[in-house]
Amino acid sequence: MNLILLGPPGAGKGTQAERLQQDFTLAHISTGEMLRQAKADGTEMGLKAQEFMDAGQLVPDEVVIGIALERISKDDARDGFLLDGFPRTVPQAEALDAEMAGLERRITAAILIEAPDEDIVRRISGRRVSKSGRVYHVEFDPPKHEGRCDVDGSVLIQRDDDKPETVRERLAVYHRQTAPLIEYYDAQGLLRRFDGTRSPTEVHDHIRATIATLRLEDEL
């Protein structure tokens, strides 16, 4: 089972990835994890990526692709993986397909968790964080005393990344760069859509059932 997890920032991909990894014993591979591991391993691609990160620059496509291809060839990913945050663009997806074909493997499905932009903005911009890192939500998980952490009493703050204008910019980048992957995988008959506005448990149950069906079909 070689799966790709798609969806806008804040749609709940991280939560679902953790649960699916446990359900199906898949290697959960995120972009951040790939870059950190490549750096730690001291690979050629990892060192190249570090040069760009040290300079405060985005890591170019060709380097990210190289690191991703190195990662999926590792032992823990040979029986299946769940890619989270890669590919981000159609050229990255095309490079992944070419590499998979060379390994005589294929993508099983692209799992898309959908949610309207305004729901995403509401979900992310409502987050508040305490000094100790505990996360609250002004609407869905508020503290007992407004603006104060229940545990350490510190003043809750809104991180810059969680401010509405920043969230909208991240969504604009997603729609411009990553959303074209929806059509790309749909054209291959690989796309599976899930409603990210439902509870995490409902979304998980739906995705798990779909993947279980795909696994049975693969075994026939």
Explain the overall architecture.
The chain has 220 residues and is an alpha/beta fold. It has a domain at 2-26 and 80-116 and 168-219: Rossmann fold (3-Layer(aba) Sandwich). Helices cover 50% and strands 14% of the residues. It contains nine helices and seven strands, in the order βαβαααβαβαββααβα. The strands form two sheets. A five-stranded parallel beta sheet has the order 2-3-1-4-7, sandwiched between helices. It has a two-stranded antiparallel sheet with strand order 5-6. A hairpin with a 5-residue loop joins strand 5 and strand 6 (135-137). The longest helix has 20 residues, at 200-219. The chain is globular. The protein starts with a strand and ends with a helix. The relative contact order is 0.17. The mean pLDDT is 90.
Order of helices and strands: EHEHHHEHEHEEHHEH
User: Fraction of residues in helices?
Assistant: 40-55%
CATH architecture of the domain at 2-26 and 80-116 and 168-219: 3-Layer(aba) Sandwich
The CATH homologous superfamily of the domain at 2-26 and 80-116 and 168-219 is termed P-loop containing nucleotide triphosphate hydrolases
Largest sheet: 5 strands, parallel
Instruction: Give the percentage of residues in beta strands.
Output: 5-15%
Class inferred from helices and paired strands: alpha/beta
The radius of gyration computed from the alpha-carbon positions, rounded to a whole number of angstroms, is 19 Å
Side by side, the strands of the main sheet go 2-3-1-4-7
* Backbone shape: globular
Instruction: Give the number of DSSP strands.
Output: 7
Q: Under the CATH scheme, which class of the domain at 2-26 and 80-116 and 168-219? A: Alpha Beta
As for the CATH topology of the domain at 2-26 and 80-116 and 168-219, it is Rossmann fold
Low-confidence residue ranges: none
Distance separating the two termini = 14 Å
| Nearest-integer average pLDDT | 90
